[in-house]
Write a sequence for this structure.
């Protein structure tokens, strides 16, 4: 389900080139939305003194996540290898249920639609959705 | 377990009414008063057919769906997209009884159209994306939550009569 075609890779790279300048805002908004729309995800952040969606900790986390996504764009040809350490982190330390990767991916797509309504065409949407699914799969690689 | 969609799962038993806050009611009505049904509907359905191409299985009689451009320009897709929005409008006008409002539609989708109910969530996600693009920054996290809750109730109601 998540084999990226050459066209997918090209589409994602081109779109990322357009939007990466705003990656911090994208990440912050995606995490904020996730905390509001899917409040069960807050359980992973119970160590934050301030769990509100626009807290500095939430923003910082959004930035961290999008840096990971940007890194994944450069490692698109072998995500399993490229995201090996991140997978270990998520598997053994963070232990985020992989269902939440889909939730965050959905919110990243919503933010793309909000911020880049003309550029986020259906063609870009399908390739980016596939890419985020592939990233999610690579992140789950070490889980069991 | 639906693999592809993250619309919140909502189980509405017939003895349990969905409760809407004033914010949710106002937000849902506001969204639907602002969007153009014959723009948003066609865009959402076309996006669904592109992003989740297996949904094209239900539209065999619609002619040319060979690529994104063909889908976007297909008049039957547009017409059906608009029809869907008008159906959603009925749910907006009957927020406290969406389940009964959609009984016949649920039977239709199950017995006549044979639509996999997991696919309703795929269309709901595409509709969320299209509305987000239309409303921009006004589609805040709180607005998104209300809209997705509405769509989850719709999706659940459409799946109710499947046996």
């Amino acid at each position: 389900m998540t084999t990226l075609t050459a066209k997918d890779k090209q589409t994602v790279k081109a779109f990322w080139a357009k939007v990466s300048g705003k990656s911090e805002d994208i990440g912050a908004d995606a995490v904020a939305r996730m905390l509001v729309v899917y409040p069960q995800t807050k359980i992973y952040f119970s160590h934050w003194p301030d769990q509100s969606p626009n807290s500095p900790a939430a923003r910082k986390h959004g930035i961290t996540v999008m840096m990971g996504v940007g890194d994944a764009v450069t490692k698109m040809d072998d995500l399993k290898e490229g995201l090996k350490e991140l997978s270990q982190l998520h598997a053994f330390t963070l232990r985020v249920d992989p269902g939440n990767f889909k939730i965050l991916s959905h919110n990243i797509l919503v933010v793309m639609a909000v911020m880049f309504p003309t550029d986020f065409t259906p063609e870009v949407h399908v390739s980016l959705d596939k890419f985020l699914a592939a990233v999610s799969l690579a992140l789950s690689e070490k889980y069991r | 377990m639906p693999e592809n969609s993250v619309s919140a799962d909502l189980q509405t038993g017939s003895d349990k009414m969905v409760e809407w806050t004033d914010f949710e009611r106002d937000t849902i009505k506001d969204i639907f008063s602002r969007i153009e049904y014959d723009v948003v509907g066609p865009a959402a359905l076309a996006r669904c057919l592109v992003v989740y191409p297996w949904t094209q299985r239900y539209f065999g009689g619609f002619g040319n769906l060979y690529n994104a451009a063909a889908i976007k320009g297909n008049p039957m897709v547009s017409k059906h997209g608009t029809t869907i929005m008008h159906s959603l409008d009925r749910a907006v006008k009957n927020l406290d009884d969406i389940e009964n409002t959609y009984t016949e539609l649920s039977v239709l989708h199950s017995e006549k159209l044979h639509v996999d109910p997991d696919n309703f969530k795929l269309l709901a996600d595409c509709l969320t994306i299209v509305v987000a693009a239309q409303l921009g920054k006004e589609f805040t996290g709180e607005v998104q939550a209300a809209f997705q809750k509405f769509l989850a109730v719709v999706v659940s109601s459409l799946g109710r009569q499947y046996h």
About this structure: The interface with chain A takes residues 3, 6, 8, 46-47, 50-51, 68, 71-72, 125, 128-130, 132-137, 139, 141-142, 144-145, 148 of chain B (CB under 8 Å). Chain B has one domain: 22-159. Chain B has eight helices and no strands. The CA atoms of residues 135 and 148 of chain B lie 15 Å apart.
